[in-house]
Amino acid sequence: MDFKQKWNFISDIYYPPMNFTDACGEPMRESSIATVPCSSACAIICEASYIGGQFAGYNYIRGCIGKIARYGFNNLTIYKMGAERRAICHRVARSQLFRGHAYMEDQVTICICYGDRCNSNRAARSGCCSRVCTQFKNLMVLYLIVFFRLNQ
């Protein structure tokens, strides 16, 4: 299921993107990914996608920090991340990141940077999900080691 098909489930959280494309995880193709200049910080939100309980890749949402979330971000969370001072990626509970969604406890990764179009595809792949994937792989290796030791 691509991101556009999932839109009905998350449209109460995010403003609609300029275009729906699976190219956000691929090398930047200017013709298929619209860009917008940001006068404030740029952001990338990287969230795991699950279908039937099975991991199905990542959804990427990129844009100006003030034009992504319908109800805005929790400014205290952004401040605690240190994002007002430097470019940073951080994994947080969705309920801590977004205003008005206290019931959502799943984790998302948000990367914030300063500079026009600094949230390029390269930043999405290297900053957000690559770190999350590495942490997930490390956790799985640890789990497998413990599992096999307990079953010996």
UniProtKB/TrEMBL annotation:
This is Ly-6 related domain containing protein. Pfam families: Ly-6_related. GO terms for cellular component: axon; neuronal cell body. It comes from Trichuris trichiura. Transmembrane segments: none annotated. GO terms for biological process: olfactory behavior; response to odorant. It comes from the Eukaryota.
